Amino acid sequence: MRALLKVLFGVFLLSAACPAAAAQDDASLDGLFARLQATPDPAEADEVAAQIWKIWTRHGTEQVDLVMAHGIVAMNTGDLRRALQAFDVVVNLAPDFAEGWNKRATVFFYLKNYEASIGDIKRTLALEPRHFGALSGLGLVTTALGDDKAALKAFESALEVNPHMPHARQRVKELRAKIKGKRI
Q: Relative to the CA of 16, which of 27, 44, 47, 182 has its CA 20 to 30 Å away?
C-alpha cells in the first residue's frame, strides 16, 4: 500500500509537467461511433466498442495512464479502497479525462455510494455525452435507488449510442414491463 501511495504522490508531483489531453477528444471516435451505429454484425460491434474503450482508457500522458492502470488493476481484484485512491488521483491530475470520472463512478457504485457515483457519471457525460458505459452505469445506479423510470431512460440512452448492448436491451425490456405493470 505504501508503495502505491509513493507512486501516486510522485505522479502527483510530476503532474505540473503533464500536458492537457483528453481521450474523448480523439479524432477517430466519430468514425468508430458511426460504425457502431451502422453495423448489423455483433462481432464487428464488439470489435468497434473495444476500440472505443481502448481510446477512452488511455489519457495519453504517462503519469495519468500509470495511475489509471493501477486503479483498474485494483478495481478488478476487488481492492476498492486502493482503486478509489488511484481514481481520485486521476481525476485530480486530469479533470478533463472522462474515463477517470467513469472509473471512479464505478468504484462508488460498488461501494454503494450512489450519490457520488451519479455525480461522477454526470461529469463523465459532460465530457463525453456518447459514453455508453456511463449511461449504462447510470441505469444500474438508478435501478439500485429504485427509480425505474430514470433507469429505463438511462439504458435507452445507452442503446441509442451503442445498440449492441445485450444487458442494456434486457434491462429495457424488464423495466418497460415493470413500469407498465405499475400503471395498471
A: 27
What is the average pLDDT across 65-75?
98
Could you report the per-residue pLDDT of 94-105, keeping only the tens digit for each? 999 999 999 999
Rounded Cα gap, residues 80 and 178, in angstroms: 32
CA angle, 110 as apex, 106 and 112 as ends, to 5°? 110
d(CA 32, CA 45): 10
Residue 9 CB: number of other CB atoms within 10 A?
Answer: 11
Predicted TM-score (pTM) of this structure: 0.86
Cell match 495519468: residue? 64
Q: Which domain holds residue 180?
A: 129-184
For residue 121, tell me if it sits in a domain.
no
Q: Are residues 133 and 111 in the same domain?
A: no
